[in-house]
Design brief:
2 copies of one chain form a homodimer. Chain A has 10 helices and 18 strands. By secondary structure, chain A is α/β, with parallel strands linked by helices. Chain A has 2 domains: 255 residues, Metallo-beta-lactamase, Chain A; 41 residues, no CATH class. In chain A, the strands form 4 sheets. In chain A, strands 6-5-4-3-2-1-18 form a 7-stranded mixed sheet. In chain A, strands 7-8-9-14-15-16-17 form a 7-stranded mixed sheet, covered by helices on one side. A two-stranded antiparallel ribbon of chain A has the order 10-13. Chains A and B meet through helix 1, helix 3 and helix 4 of A and helix 1, helix 3 and helix 4 of B. Chains A, B: Keywords: Endonuclease, Hydrolase, Metal-binding, Nuclease, tRNA processing, Zinc. Chains A, B: Its cofactor is Zn(2+). Chains A, B: Belongs to the RNase Z family. Chains A, B: Zinc phosphodiesterase, which displays some tRNA 3'-processing endonuclease activity. Probably involved in tRNA maturation, by removing a 3'-trailer from precursor tRNA.
Chain lengths: 304, 304
């Protein structure tokens, strides 16, 4: 079990304000950083939060509205200047390829690394990224343009060795790796000792779901079942429900209802409309339904 | 004579730092704002400095390196959200059309106003914009990509009416406008009274020259003759002269030499390399040659 945390780089929406940067986050999992959305100023915020550009293994864009992707050209360009050589995969819904094409073409001669564009499925939930420790699954959202959330789920964690029990059955050290991965052990006499008797269960795998931007979408519930932390946009207060519907956004109350229905452990709201200088009313509206809610703010770090 | 001032939105260079934003400025002339370069975060800085997006009459881009133009998509997009309907002209060297094409195409259906792209001549000095009160002239610079500076020059200001003299010669009030513009007056007896006897000269027209990015370019001297304020990039200290040459940038000393040779009134330096956390040494290097130098900083307002 290594580090698993979310860094909020920006949690505002389209109109620039002095309170917030447009949407951008970093999911940190052990030694890897995953950039999730990349509004204008994301690279500045990365630097401010002392996150090492060299640890970025991928970028995940939810949709192509400017407040979620206009920081991408700058970030990609800076990574080149900082000497990146490793391929960088960028994930996003239909249109991400067209959005990146001019940058890729223009920078080909000097960028120093390749960008691998992955157009993900924004209509169904499917795995778009996988490595030894995590899978990333798309979450179909409903917005005015193709839009997808992302679910980061740790893989089942290794089991813990029960030393006393292993010594009792004469399990050699060289077999510990197999045990941790769930294998049973066969003694010299041919007796099978089940893994459960030689190990204890590892920690429950943690998960983080990112849902921005979206209209109220109860069908998300089953996809978000039991996640450790859910980020859900809460652009408006309930008194602007009509405006939320019209713009395909959610209210703080709706975000809380999704969290409640899915039975998530914790909720973090963000993507505040520029009209809210103080986010406390949004937080209170959500907490009235789902108490385990916090309001995102630039620089916030959420440990999983 | 109305207001004429320069607002520094950003004076850093390519690598993001906590000290500076990438390059962007606003030239304010009476009721008009001209955006000069538009690095990432320019729209945030406009808001921070309480500059009204609705007063922007044009955008002037020096070249297409990201630290001078990656804030443009966000600014253009926000101007649409704020309800702009008036055509916006954007000036820039070869490539500006290609850079803006994807944005213009993508946003055509919802932006709400037209963007008029003007590819300026980056090889010679020529007028690219003109209105009742100002002309903007390109300044050919030498960089690794087509690059142009801009010279904002007030038009010759109106002459001041000498009331006593006008009354003496019986000049009717209705003729004052013609007098202010320099016309002579003919009396009922057919005698010509020269304008100089009826008016006094108006104030000397003010001018602002923007030169970023460029290698040391002494040929700029005659183009900058007597300007009121010169912004000249000073990316490095003289101890990195080789690096300045290699990257087609200038040292603080070189910026000062250009100011000195052109006989400008004042110099403001900027576009500091990320290696300089403190800009004082750059300022001192320039002041040793040209004492009337200041070092740009975010939020600085330079009155002309």
């Amino acid at each position: 079990m290594g580090d698993f945390r979310v860094h909020i780089l920006g949690c505002g929406s389209a109109l620039p304000t002095m309170q917030h940067y447009p949407t951008a986050q970093v999911v940190e999992l052990r030694d890897k950083l995953f950039v999730v959305d990349c509004g204008e100023g994301a690279q500045r915020q990365l630097r401010r939060q002392r996150l090492d550009f060299g640890r970025i293994v991928g970028v995940f864009i939810s949709h192509l509205h400017g407040d979620h992707c206009y920081g991408l050209y700058g970030l990609l360009s800076t990574m080149g200047m900082l000497g990146r050589r490793r391929v960088l995969p960028v994930y996003g819904p239909r249109g991400i390829d067209k959005f990146l094409a001019p940058f890729i073409e223009e920078s080909r001669s000097y960028l120093g690394y390749d960008i691998e564009v992955h157009v993900v499925d924004d209509r169904t939930s499917s795995v778009c990224y996988e490595d030894r420790s995590v899978t990333v699954t798309t979450l179909p959202l409903e917005h005015r343009t193709p839009c997808t959330g992302y679910l980061f789920r740790e893989k089942v964690t290794e089991r813990h060795i029960d030393r006393a029990s292993c010594d009792f059955y004469g399990v050699p050290r060289s077999y510990y790796t197999a045990l941790r991965e769930g294998a049973d052990f066969t003694t010299d006499e041919g007796k099978v000792i089940p893994c459960e008797r030689l190990t204890r269960q590892g920690k429950t795998p943690r998960s983080y779901a990112y849902c921005s931007d979206t209209a109220y979408l109860p069908s998300l519930g089953p996809l978000l079942r039991d996640v450790s932390l859910l980020y859900h946009e809460a652009t408006f207060l309930s008194d602007r429900l009509a405006r939320a519907k019209e713009t395909a956004h959610s209210t703080a109350e709706q975000a809380a209802r999704i969290a409640q229905a899915a039975g998530v452990e914790r909720l973090v709201i963000g993507h505040y409309s520029a009209r809210y200088i103080d986010t406390q009313p949004l937080l209170e509206e959500a907490q009235a339904i789902f108490p385990e809610t916090v309001a995102a703010d630039e620089g916030m770090i959420l440990e999983l």
